[in-house]
């Protein structure tokens, strides 16, 4: 090959390299410009669509969204925490209800396997939709307490159509609770039947009445009430205690989402070993040395328990031990269970002037009685006076939303 041809070929190769270099530089610059343009444009997922005041759709980049001030952010966070807490409480209560139903089913299954008869409380029934109530108020009474019952009817317990309205509109059931006499169908039972026919405000228990049988009566009451009415709370009150029903409902309503609650005036009185004294404890030796005190439990004049605890008593009533004093017995049944004890002193106010002063200060009492009498002293004569001076007023009951 000649020198001329070699020179021409070399020149072409040099030109080719120069254009290749220029082309690479151009491509690099173009790529940089294109990359910068792509980075500045918002991605579809970063675009927020909002409505303006005129109802037109606006598209706002995520980076341009106006920031909320600290106050609004704090309010939103607190609201979210409150909603989460409410949801957890509701879920906990639902789980607790399922656990109690499972326990009842297991008890029924064990009875079948053992060949034992199944009590009515454990029989598996077809699912029936029951009306939901706020509370069932059982007023403990005796055959000899007709005048006490009348004093309650004339003061804090609505009568006739008003009582039915209370059940339908407010979800509150109220009944005098009594069993049967030792001679079934005798004069005492016939007197109660006649009274019930007139007023229709009794809950009759399969129980033989007697002062020393109050613990058994308490078990039977809760088992019967939870079988008849689906309520959030079951209340026991004595027939010589003054009660403000609306205030009671409001107080219990604050604990509605809790699964296992035991509400009352908690006390821890002395264990009385001496025979012949009031509230003598025959099984005093179980509580240790002489002079010891009981565990914390609600005083017997008025207390309330949630549905889960009433169901627990119903399922286990045949194995729950009965002490001489019914309030001690109830407290003992919850030892070892995951139960929240709520000590509310408004459930044990004194009679006037104590409850009157508190009412004037805007702190209306739930229940009022005299500690010295374990109820309102001379309640037949004084119940109207206590109601006049310490009552919440009838209008309060009908205007309160539970």
Task: Give a nutshell description of this structure.
By secondary structure, this protein is an alpha/beta fold. The chain is built from twelve helices and eleven strands.
Give structural notes.
The structure is a single chain. The chain has 402 residues and is an alpha/beta fold. It contains 12 helices and 11 strands. A hairpin with a 5-residue loop joins strand 1 (47-51) and strand 2. Helix 3 (146-153) runs parallel beside helix 11, helix 6 packs across helix 8 (307-316) and helix 6 crosses helix 9 (326-333). The N and C termini lie far apart (112 Å).
For the secondary structure, the number of strands is: 11
Question: What does the main sheet amount to?
Answer: 7 strands, mixed
Strand order of the biggest β-sheet: 5-4-3-6-9-8-10
The percentage helix is: 40-55%
Span of the ends, CA to CA: 112 Å
The residue-averaged pLDDT reads: 82
State Rg: 37 Å
Strand content: 15-25%
The structure class reads alpha/beta
Summed up, the helix count is: 12
Tertiary shape: elongated
Written as H for each helix and E for each strand, in order along the chain, the element string is HEEHEHHEHEHEEHEEHHEHEHH
Residue windows where pLDDT falls under 50 for at least 5 positions: 1-12, 38-65, 114-119, 121-127
């Amino acid at each position: 090959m000649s020198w001329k041809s070699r020179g021409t070929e070399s020149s072409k190769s040099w030109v080719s390299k120069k254009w290749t270099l220029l082309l690479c530089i151009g491509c690099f610059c173009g790529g940089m410009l294109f990359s910068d343009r792509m980075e500045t444009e918002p991605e579809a997922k970063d675009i927020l669509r909002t409505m303006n005041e005129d109802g037109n759709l606006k598209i706002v980049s995520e980076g341009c969204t106006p920031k909320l001030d600290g106050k609004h952010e704090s309010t939103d966070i607190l609201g979210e925490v409150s909603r989460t807490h409410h949801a957890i409480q509701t879920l906990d209560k639902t789980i607790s209800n399922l656990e109690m139903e499972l326990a009842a089913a297991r008890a029924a299954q064990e009875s079948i396997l053992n060949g034992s008869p199944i009590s009515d409380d454990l029989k598996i029934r077809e699912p029936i939709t029951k009306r939901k109530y706020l509370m069932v108020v059982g007023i403990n009474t005796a055959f000899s307490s007709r005048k006490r019952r009348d004093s309650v009817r004339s003061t804090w317990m609505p009568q006739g159509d008003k009582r039915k309205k209370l059940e339908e509109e407010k979800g509150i059931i109220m009944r005098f609770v009594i069993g049967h006499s030792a001679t079934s169908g005798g004069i005492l039972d016939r007197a109660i039947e006649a009274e019930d026919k007139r007023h229709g405000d009794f809950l009759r228990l399969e129980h033989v009445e007697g002062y020393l049988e109050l613990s058994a009566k308490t078990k039977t009451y809760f088992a019967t009430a939870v079988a008849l009415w689906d309520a959030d709370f079951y209340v026991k009150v004595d027939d010589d205690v003054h009660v403000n029903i609306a205030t009671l409902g409001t107080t219990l309503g604050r604990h509605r989402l809790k699964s296992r609650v035991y509400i009352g005036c908690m006390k821890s009185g002395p264990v009385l070993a001496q025979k012949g004294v009031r509230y003598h404890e025959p099984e005093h030796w179980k509580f240790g040395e002489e002079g010891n005190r009981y565990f914390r439990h609600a005083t017997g004049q008025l207390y309330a328990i949630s549905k889960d605890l009433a169901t627990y008593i119903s399922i286990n009533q045949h194995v729950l031990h009965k002490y001489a004093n019914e309030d001690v017995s109830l407290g003992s049944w919850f030892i070892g269970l995951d139960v929240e004890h709520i000590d509310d002193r408004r459930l044990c106010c004194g009679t006037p002037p104590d409850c009157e002063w508190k009412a004037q200060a805007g702190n209306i009492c739930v229940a009022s009685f005299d500690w010295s009498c374990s109820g309102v002293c001379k309640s037949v004569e004084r119940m109207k006076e206590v109601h006049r001076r310490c009552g919440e007023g009838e209008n309060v009951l009908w205007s309160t939303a539970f």
